[in-house]
Amino acid sequence: MTEVSKDYPGAQAFVPKGASIADLARAARGCQGCELHRPATQTVFGSGQPSSRIVFVGEQPGDVEDRRGEPFVGPAGRLLDRALADAGIDREQAYVTNAVKHFRFTGTPGKRRIHQKPDASHMAACRPWLDAELAQLAPEVVVALGATAAAVLIGPAFRVTRQRGQLMPWDGPSGAEDAGVHSGWIVATIHPSAVLRTEGEGRDAAFAGLVSDLKVAAAALAG
Predict the structure, then answer these.
(1) Contact, 179 vs 172, CB < 8 A?
(2) How far apart, in Å, are the Cα atoms of 144 and each of 7, 8, 42, 53, 112?
C-alpha cells in the first residue's frame, strides 16, 4: 500500500500497544496521523461488543457519523441494519468500524459536505487502528463493505464487483504475531451507500445482492 505522507507520522505513533478496544477508542480521539484530522469534526472509531464474532469494515465515516462520532448511523447505516436483519445477523452482537477513521469531504464545514473517497495514503496512515481493533477482537468472520475496505483487508487487486460474496480464509490483521495463519473468514460485498446510489427498480436488486452476500457471512458464523 502507498506510504504515509512524509508530513504526517501515520497512526502507528498514536496506537498504544496491547490496548483494549476501549483504550484504543480513547487514544484514537487524539490521532493526527494524517491531514484528515484537521477538517473533520472528530475521530469516528469502531463500535460494538468486544466479544463480537463478526466485524464489518466500511470505508470511512460519512457526514452524519462525523457529527455524531459513531459509525454507520446515517442513511447507509440504517440500510445496513435492514440488510443485517434480513440476513439473520444481529447488529447488537456485531462490531462495525471503518478503514479510515476521519471523514474526508469537499465543501465548507458547517454547510453541505460531500463525501470524497480517501486516498491510498489515508488508508495506509489509518491501517494501524484497524489492525489493532482486529487483533483485539479476533473475529471469526470479517465483512469488507465496499472496494476501499476490500483493498485494505484483502489487497488492491481484489475486485468487489467480480469477487463479492465469496467466503475466503482470513489470516488475521497485518503485523499480528499469527499473521499468515488461517484464523477466520472474510467476505466482501458492496457498501450500503452503493445501494442508496442505485436508482429505480435496480435498487431492490442491489439490496437483495447485499443481503445475499451477508447471508454467506451468517452461514460461516453458524457453521
Answers:
(1) yes
(2) 29, 27, 23, 15, 28
Outline where 114-201 has alpha helix (H).
120-137, 147-153, 160-163, 192-197
What is the C-alpha to C-alpha distance for residues 125 and 9, in angstroms, rounded to an integer? 8
Tell me the three state secondary structure of residue 175: coil
Q: Grid coordinates 489492525 are at which residue?
A: 131
**Residue ranges per structural domain of the chain:** 11-222
How far apart are alpha carbons 200 and 40 in whole angstroms?
33
User: Region 33-50: what's the mean pLDDT?
Assistant: 96
**Would you say 133 and 12 are in contact if contact means Cβ atoms under 8 Å apart?**
no
Distance CA 84, CA 200 (A): 22
Tell me the residue type at 105.
Answer: F
The DSSP result for 53-122, as a single string, is SEEEEES---HHHHHHT-SS-SHHHHHHHHHHHHHT--GGGSEEEESS-S--EEE-TTS-EEE-PPPHHH
Res 217 pLDDT > 90: yes
Answer whether residue 2 shows pLDDT above 50: no
Q: What is the pLDDT of residue 12?
A: 95
pTM of the model: 0.92
Q: What is the rounded distance in angstroms from the CA atom of residue 55 to the CA atom of residue 52?
A: 7
Q: Which CATH architecture has domain 11-222?
A: 3-Layer(aba) Sandwich (3.40)
> Which positions ≥6 away from 129 have C-beta within 8 Å?
11, 15, 24, 28, 31, 45, 101
At 109 the pLDDT is 60
